[in-house]
Amino acid sequence: MKKRVTGIYFVLLLTGILYAVFIAFSTRDNIIVNTRAEEKEVIIWDHDMEMTKEGDTYYYRRMLPEENTSEKVIVYNTVHMYLEVFIDGNKVYELKTGKDTAVKTTGFCWNTITLTKEDAGREIVFCVTPVYHDSKPKESFYYGTYQEIERRILTERILELALAVLIALAGFVMLFYGFFVVEKGQDAEIIIQFAVFSMMLGIWSVGETQILDWIFPCSIIIVFISHLMLMILPIPFVLFLRHMYHDEESRLWSFCCYLNCVVIALRVILQIMGIYDLRETLLLTHVCLLIIAVVCAVMTIREIMSHNFSGQVRLNSICVMVMLLSTILELAIYRLGNQSTPLGSIGFLIYVVVMGIANVRRTRELMEQARENALYRKLAYTDELTGLANRTAFNEDLQKRIEQNEMPGKEKTLPTTIFMFDLNDLKKCNDTYGHDYGDQYIKMAADVLKKMFEREGKCYRIGGDEFCAWAPDISLENINEKLLFLEQETRKLNEKGFVVTFSMAAGYAVYEESKDGSGLYNTMKRADVMMYEKKQQYKNGRV
Q1: Residue range 245-286, pLDDT digits in tens
Q2: 52, 115 contact by CB (below 8 A)
């Protein structure tokens, strides 16, 4: 499920971004901003204005100061609004969309109305018409020099911007950690999914500060990307969250992901077709988020009832509650006092940092455990003295080759050549010179066999002085080359000298279905018979 969902939401994300870029360029000339004069330096001034409403349009009036206004501007922030500004009945500023665009909104825009000295004492009127019926205009205006207004706006939002950037940065750090530090597997996927969620949350939070709108006024692409981040971030969140629960393969998780994909596709299609803007279909995403919240609550209750309240689920639940409460408190303060606070961003940052650290610790513990398991497995399947695979590994590998050979549609592993080896005079070496020399004798034999099968096949130590190896189907000429190599290495070792003469009996057999049936154990027995004959010949002094 997760691979399909991941593929779908990345395709939707890419499609949405490409469409946003297309819209941004295609509507660049259709967002009409008409202003009368050049911007000049000003200072900050913020004042209430007389408001009236006629139909869908809000009118904000006031008399401009009698002072010299030649170096003053008024900055007014609109969100999905059409705007006309009049001074003594003369239109000096206009913000609207063109007739040839399917996009209704003007996006987020900081509107700067530049004043002249003739405007002093005159009446200024802002005519604000919401693009969408459920939108309401803001009632704060900035009056003063442009530089001071800019400094004030950035100062007011710098904390929210810093928090949003930290959230996105935490996501990028975890993404790097997931790709380049965590070993590939489920643990890396968990970190990566959470990192993607954090980056999307951070990017969306940056858009909500509206600082980018100050730098790029009336940029539709910022609006589109903000909507895309909000639409898509539930998917990596669900894919990350489900790993905390024992029932991570529940269909409820899949339902949430596929439902969100459908909502994304529907909203983007309606936008592309010009039927509804993304802002008008935002309710669909809100409903989807509510459904996901209900599913998470249901899965948490089921987890508690079935497996108690595990540490990870408990920590996540506490962090989610902190995030929700901080967001609700921020909205309440804004609704009651019309003041913007960074409480929501602080809650998001707490969630990302706490859960990020928890997941990094968890993956580190799992990585350490995996390394220990790998070490134990290596010890269980490796001969400590020679470093070759042991008899347990030989039996498992042999059985795997047999099973693979019997599976339909798989590449056949048979025929296979089996080699059997046995050291001569190991007992004599141990009894006469001690086990230390006996161990050296065994290591010498292992080193020769490693060289012999380093390019093809695999060698095992299956007993005290017994070795076995297999090689893929090779010709009789290749077999003779290997046996000749063994003779040459034996001669070199004996020229160097050792406490006993280095000698190894060797036998081989090639799998034949008529003789060995469906297994390799009969092949091994035939190779063992040949090896035993060679050993007897050595004992009888004929080799």
Answers
A1: 888 889 999 999 999 999 999 999 998 888 888 888 989 999
A2: no
Give me 177's structure tokens.
Answer: 């950690």
Arithmetic mean of pLDDT over the chain: 83
State the pLDDT at residue 1: 54
- 343 or 260, which is more confident: 260
Tokens of 229: 């981040």
pTM confidence score = 0.67
Structure token digits, residue 527 = 């190779």
Separation in Å, CA 36 to CA 86, 407, 495: 11, 80, 102
**Could you give the domains of the chain?**
2-26+155-369 (1.20.1070), 36-144 (2.60.120.260), 391-539 (3.30.70.270)
Strand partners, 63: 123
Asked if 279 and 105 count as a contact pair (C-beta separation under 8 A), the reply is yes
pLDDT on residue 239: 92
Peptide bond into 415 cis (omega under 30): yes
Q: How far is CA 364 from CA 50, 132, 177, in A?
A: 61, 49, 11
* Separation of alpha carbons 80 and 248, rounded Å: 41
**Rounded-to-integer distance, Cα 460 and Cα 443, Å:** 12
